[in-house]
């Protein structure tokens, strides 16, 4: 390793602070939707293989501090999405009853939402949307997450972003009750403002 040299180090003294990341940006319903999108082009994507156990998927979500994982095949293509709700909800129990398997034998592919059941919003639409539009879209679909897609120069579809209701709630500083499925931007605004 003769081509490398040690970098000079300085002894610390006095008042030294540790860098703290800026808190999540506060948004309103009128803020641009891009302010609340997790841009996958600039962050590490949490993934898992379809043949892994749901127990491993749950552990991985806890370690990463996320509530969903992209299910990626060996050739790096999207196969589906698995969420904490999938793992901790009724899906595994129903699968156990149908197949007579132990919980530890259930695979991600057994309970994930497969690709052909996923929906995504176009990046072009997101560029012109407000936070309220995204909340309305999530509520109408009854979902905690929605994907954002764009097109590569060769025409292939790529998932480039994700919206998470949990993240939106943090940035709004308000709870958004999915049970009260508000259908319009005005209903969403009334619900969020009254909380």
From TrEMBL:
UniProt key word NADP: no
Superkingdom assignment: Bacteria
CBS domain sequence ranges: 37-98
InterPro entries listed in its UniProt record: CBS_dom (IPR000644), CBS_dom_sf (IPR046342)
Pfam families: CBS (PF00571)
Keywords per UniProt: CBS domain
Protein name: CBS domain-containing protein
Organism: Nitrosomonas marina
């Amino acid at each position: 390793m003769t081509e490398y040299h040690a970098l000079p180090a300085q002894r610390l003294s006095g008042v030294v602070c540790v860098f703290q990341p800026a808190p999540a940006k506060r948004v309103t319903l009128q803020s641009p939707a891009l302010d609340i999108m997790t841009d996958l082009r600039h962050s590490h994507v949490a993934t898992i293989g379809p043949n892994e156990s749901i127990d491993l998927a749950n552990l991985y979500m806890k370690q990463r501090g996320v509530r969903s994982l992209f299910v990626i095949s060996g050739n790096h293509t999207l196969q589906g999405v698995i969420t904490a709700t999938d793992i901790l909800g009724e899906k595994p129990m129903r699968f156990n009853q149908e197949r007579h398997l132990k919980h530890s034998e259930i695979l991600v592919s057994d309970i994930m939402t497969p690709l052909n059941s996923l929906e995504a919003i176009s990046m072009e639409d997101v560029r012109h949307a407000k936070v309220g539009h995204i909340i309305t879209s999530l509520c109408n679909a009854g979902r905690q997450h929605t994907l954002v897609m764009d097109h590569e120069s060769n025409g292939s579809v790529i998932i480039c972003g994700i919206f998470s209701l949990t993240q939106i709630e943090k940035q709004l500083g308000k709870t958004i009750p999915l049970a009260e499925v508000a259908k319009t931007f005005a209903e969403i605004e009334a619900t969020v403002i009254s909380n």
